[in-house]
Amino acid sequence: MTEIHSDGIVLVGGGKMGGALLTGWLESGVNASKIHVVEPKASTAKSLAPFGVTVVAEAAELPGAAETVVFAVKPQIMNDVVPDYKRLNSGEIVFLSIAAGCTISLFETHLGSVPVVRAMPNTPAAIGLGMTVACANAQTSKGQKARCQTLLEAVGEVAWVSEESLMDPVTAVSGSGPAYVFLLIETLAAAGVEAGLCADLAMRLARATVRGAGELASRSEDAPSQLRVNVTSPGGTTAAALDVLMAGDGLDRLMKRAVLAATTRSKALAG
After folding, report:
1. Which backbone phi and psi does 69 adopt, to 5 degrees?
2. Which residue in 71, 86, 111, 171 has a CA-CA distance of 20 to 30 Å to 212?
3. Domain check: are 119 and 231 in the same one?
4. How far apart (Å, rounded) are the C-alpha atoms in residues 181 and 70?
5. What does DSSP say about strands 116-120 and 130-136: parallel, antiparallel, or unpaired?
6. Cβ count within 10 A of residue 226
7. In 126-226, where do the E strands start and end?
8. What is the DSSP letter of 174?
9. Is 90 exceeded by the pLDDT of residue 270?
10. Taking the CB of residue 63, how many other CB atoms lie within 10 A of it?
11. What is the CA radius of gyration of the chain?
12. Do 146 and 181 belong together in one domain?
């Protein structure tokens, strides 16, 4: 990842995702003195003190200039929070949101014609293995996009889409996707117990198998379909299981239904 240099970052919200970003920035070389965090919850603000950043309770306590404002608060309160940051607007500032379902137009409504980047990270960002997809409005310059990319790369991979409408299926695939994998671990372990394994061993096997398979898929030059073929001996145990999972009513159909449901819900939340 490109080393981050910044003349001023305002992080609005110091919760789990905001905290993950903050940790990534500091580990990437951002000077803590360049970061202001707006966090009204006293217990969360106290937990941020060891980072050495400046923590304030509200936007009114911020200095009058910043290079990037990152919104990491819950989508339900975004309309109430964003207007407080209009005073920071300048020709160079870019507003970056990582809140699911909050459209670019929401920020333009409150802030005016300003550079806005809408991003959708996922929870593996907490360990630096996130996947983030971003979309920028027409006012965002190449330099501002690059700045946002380096900030987001602090917690994992970054990809861009040119059409904001694609953020709904992005949310369904990568934003919500970790939950699908966690469910796979749960159900695989439960099936192991049903087959006779003790619960602890079944869960250990499920966790390690998903972790190892994911890492192999990440490192291998082969497509996942080929990796599947590689582990499937004709007439063997894996083939017997895949006959069930790949049946007409199997995993493929279920996953398509799940992603469609999440996409539809994302569109609804965005209004």
Report:
1. -115, 125
2. 171
3. no
4. 28
5. antiparallel
6. 10
7. 130-136, 156-160
8. I
9. no
10. 11
11. 21
12. no
- Beta sheet of 35-38, edge-to-edge order: 54-56, 35-38, 9-12, 68-71, 94-97, 116-120, 130-136, 156-160
Q: In the beta sheet, which residues pair with residue 68?
A: 9, 94
Query: pLDDT tens-digit profile of 101-139?
Result: 899 999 999 999 999 999 999 999 999 999 999 999 999
Answer for the pair 102, 117: CB distance below 8 angstroms, yes or no: no
Of the candidates 24, 43, 268, the one whose C-alpha atom is nearest the C-alpha of residue 35 is 24
Residue 129 lies in a domain: yes
Beta strands in 57-211 (DSSP E): 68-71, 94-97, 116-120, 130-136, 156-160
Given 110, 138, 166, the domain boundary residue is 166
Give the predicted TM-score (pTM) of the model. 0.89
Q: 51, 76 in Cβ contact below 8 A?
A: no
Which domain covers residue 245, as residue numbers?
177-269
Number of domains, the chain = 2
Tokens of residue 5, six digits? 């240099």
Half-sphere exposure (CA, 13 Å, Cβ side) for 55? 20
